[in-house]
Amino acid sequence: MSPPMTHSSLDARRRELLLRSAELRVHVTWQAAELARAAAPVFAVADGALAGGRWLQRHPLAVAALLALVAVKRPRAALRWGLRALGAWRWLRLLRVWLRPTA
What we know:
The protein is built from three helices and no strands. With about 100 residues, the chain is mainly alpha-helical. It folds into two domains: about 1-60; about 60-103. Helix 2 (about 60-75) crosses helix 3. The relative contact order is 0.04.
């Protein structure tokens, strides 16, 4: 059994714990900043992809014109890419069903 702690030893222990807490907070802040720096390029690519998706939604005629041009110039390639796009679309729909929260 440990001896009872005195008021001064409790104060000393409290100061130690406060110091350790401050050190840990500094360490966590540093780690969060490092993680943010490491993830920045990934987030930049994701932001660009989202911006591209928004542009496509705002300019459907440009997309349709490009698809029509490809279909006229390279019909086989257009068919091949169309089938791939259809497969990707179906796969994404299935993935959304699997990832949907159950509640």
